[in-house]
Amino acid sequence: MKITDTSDLWFKGAIIYCLDVETYFDSDGDGAGDLQGLAQRIDYLAQLGVTCLWLMPFSPTPDRDDGYDITDYYGVDPRLGTHGDLVELIRTARDRGMRVIVDLVVNHTSDRHPWFRKARRSRNSPYRDFYIWRDDPPPKGQKNPVFPGEADGVWSKDEASGQWYQHSFYEYQPDLNIANPAVRDELARVIGFWLQLGVSGFRVDAVPFLLELPPGAHIPDPHELLRDFRRFLQRRSSEAVLLGEVNLPYEQQVQFFGGDEVNELTMQFDFVAMQALYLSLARHDPAPLVTALSSRPTLPPDVQWANFLRNHDELTLDKLTDAERQEVFEAFAPDERQRVYGRGITRRLPPMLGDPRRIRMAYSLLFSLPGTPVLFYGEEIGMGENIEAPGRSAVRTPMQWTSDKNGGFSVAPASRLVAHPPTDGYAPEHVNVAAQLADRESLLHFFRDLTSRYRISPELGWGRFEVIEQPEAAVLVHSLRADVGRTVAIHNFDEVPATVRFALTDEPEGTCLVDLLDAVRMPLDERGRVELEMPGYGYRWLRVSRPGDGRVP
Asked: What's the pLDDT tens digit per position in 77-89?
């Protein structure tokens, strides 16, 4: 790896920031955020260190599923702005060093999409085969595995035709039939359209569901659809990426990268390590996380894992055992109302962890794990959830800019807001951007420090992960090593201070460790050993500084 490689594979050292336009900033006072409002906050995001914006769905929608029920793949919801507003946003973000990726939700449409409306009119409609139908009634007692308790089964009857249509999610989100070449062609046009407007790729929603074939379909390999997407993407824009939501065990996730040929997804979220991390936090023991990271498949250099602590959905724990999941529930969601679908938590990280030291340790760990960090808006100021909002909506609250009315998000009456901020200790009067900008010791400034150090340490995104042995069970010491250099990260998962001793026996004489977060230099002794004190929930990033390597510091 040369430092110039980081330009070609920009996503491997990116800092991705996910936001919902309608809850970010309202510029016209109608109660909903909009693209012009987001553009007004681009400099804030640039100062935060963000290099890639991920925009949740902004297309026209009945908004029954937070925009994931789309009625026009080529449109912009008029509540949020126009295509012109979007292009201006993309241009402004690019000027500040940020790329923009957008959600690609193509495993289903809204039942109000023109395609589905035309499909329902007649069995002979050319759009009928855009969706999946059956003549015989589905088995009784069918369950919906995605939304247990909220959605009944995966088949609903269309009374006009007497057939049932498939929906892997809610009944108002009929599944598209990817076995139909006309559907695949249309999806390629959708990708090409948004690339032409300047986006740098897509976060692909629910990828395994996208590749599920309808009964009776005969396609030798559904993954050919992803390969088609990737080929088309690279023809239109060589820099563009596909970031996939693939919540599967590692051995199955590898298939969605394309195996040895690496011709499908560019990046995938690491759900396995995320869930193991919460188990480690609950136990004050890094062992579950180490086990997960050590079992990651080795990937070719031009694909990447995406790491996250929180996203816009429930904090799913479906890859843990029942007993492990219960441990995490008891530690971080003791109230049944904080749980959903029997597998997830509807809370943000700060209320779950509580201790400010522990919160900072968790984010320090996120940025120093092998892979690309992904942030959910508001994490940088420690926003909490609105316990009054149902289900996953609890974490989709308006961005809290000031302590003013509606947290500075909107001047509209509270009754017109698309969502409401929390009213407890995480309310805007206690947690907001303006106050933290003025406080050099705030979480926001801590994030700025992390992002600035991360961006000058490409080994964090590119490096080979190694656990460094040391005697403290509650402490994780690991290094990330690449041709450009090496960084050692230390994290104490316990509130009890610890004395950490380890050795870097393969480093040359005269090597020292430079603390990137504290400007302290620590020499290794003649045997490559170092000893240091770690406070409770402490964290350190130590750059390995070899004689004459020329790195700063």
From this structure: 999 999 999 999 9
